[in-house]
Amino acid sequence: MPCVYKVNKDNEKVVMPELDPETRSHNFCEVALGYNEEQAQQEARRCIQCPKKPCMSGCPVGVPIPQFIEQVALGNFAQAYELVHRANTLPAVCGRACPQETQCEGKCTRGRKGQPVGIGRLERFVADWATAHPDQVMCQDAQDPQAEAATQSSDASLTESEDLDGYRVAVVGSGPASLTCAGELAQRGCDVSVFEALHETGGVLTYGIPEFRLPKTLVAQEIHKLEDVGVEFKTDVVVGKLYDIDELMDECGFDAVFVGTGAGLPSYLGIEGEGANGVMVANELLTRVNLMKAYQFPRFDTPVYAGKHCVVVGGGNVAMDAARTARRLGAEVTLVYRRGLEQMPARAEEIHHAVQEGIQLQLLTNPVCILVDDDGWIDGVECVSMQLSEPDESGRQSVVEVPDSNFVIDADMMVIAVGSKTNPLIAKTTPGLEVTSRNLMVVDEETCATSKPGVYAGGDAVSGAATVILAMGAGKRAAAGIADYLKMKQAS
Predict the structure, then answer these.
(1) 3-state helix, strand, coil in the chain (%, to 5)
(2) How far apart are CA 182 and CA 172, in angstroms?
(3) What phi, psi does 329 have (nearest 5°)?
(4) How far, rounded to the nearest angstrom, does the alpha carbon of residue 465 sit from its chain's CA centroid?
(5) What is the reported pTM?
(6) Ramachandran class of 62: left when φ > 0, alpha when ψ lies in -120 to 50, beta otherwise
(7) Are 419 and 402 in contact (CB under 8 A)?
(8) pLDDT tens, residue by residue, 401-423
(9) 107-139: per-residue pLDDT in tens?
(10) CA 412 to chain CA mean position, Å
(11) Which of 57, 146, 168, 328 is the most buried (most CB within 10 A)?
(12) Domains of the chain
């Protein structure tokens, strides 16, 4: 059925309302304020409803993008949410944390001659609208033919009725891959228990992404929705210590296990002075601030060091999060990155927000030594200038040190954000589980099955540190693989 609304042909996205940079750099309130109904409809009408739907090829979880956007344009927000939520169990999260510019929006036809449709912003809108209007969402007819047909055409497995009652699945970790897998399996009738090592659920959504980008109340709301459909969450359980994988299956009676433990071990620079007081990895800073509410000290008894001059090392989203967090704790922040702006892997939006908030970018710069005073505290960071080399056969430019270019950046605080690694605990305690030299679990790409029967894995535990949406895509594939495995058991 053709779209009946008038398409807005403006090549620019509707501007997202935001907090003023000077104001927000001193608090942890959410930066982006979201669209109102009028703005959402205006942005949705920029979609030209391409017959081939290229945007969907960029969505790892198969959201029926044109269909839900059409419903937003028509003002049918409850139906739009229904379409999104059937494919994506965490729409409020993805609308904020997903790198849409390299996923769905990167495939958008409108982006060829202007800005792509703000798909992520619209996904966030429908999720937030549904939270604010629960009664209208509940009244949405689940058998609406148009919503049913749209969802079936994008992913038939979402509407497939499966009788897996009585089968028990253990999910290790409670990050985005695990939450997606748990939700999908619960919809299929499985009895799902999620085991989380920390005292709060949500994984990286809770401890790794700052409040000003992803409010923790939203994460809690998504988890409560999973609890409402029967998913059980058990915190303070370290699988590999309290139970190993074999014990979960043989003694606790689980028919299958999904491992979504993420990549939580930090990487270091390997330079002199890293052990000085005032030097920390981004994992520590973000976990203390996000999970343990250090930004509300002394209301929460978890202080965090906040120097006057902070150097953050790295160029990814975690580095941006750490830099913007340190800024809000009162520090003047310099972000050091060994490549140029064009090579920086962080989202363009996060770089833009960081610069707005006063973060200084020191590009083509690499730390070589941390200066330490007589009391063992950081007293500066010695760096060298870098330059890009000629591209190799693949087109990639490496960086080389500029001779005799040493200089010192004053600092009394330093945060290292140069990546993370997978904890080897699961691999070491699970006989028959094949892993790489980096302790990444080896899985079948389509089903996420590991080398151990009945054990599946996905997210950063398989890929290394990646994005929320890619982890969710892996959790969805794993749920389908586990369902097929359980049906085989059922038939035997």
Answers:
(1) 40, 15, 45
(2) 10
(3) -85, 0
(4) 10
(5) 0.90
(6) left
(7) no
(8) 999 999 999 999 999 999 888 99
(9) 999 999 899 999 999 999 999 999 999 888 777
(10) 30
(11) 328
(12) 21-158 (1.10.1060.10), 168-264+422-491 (3.50.50.60), 266-419 (3.50.50.60)
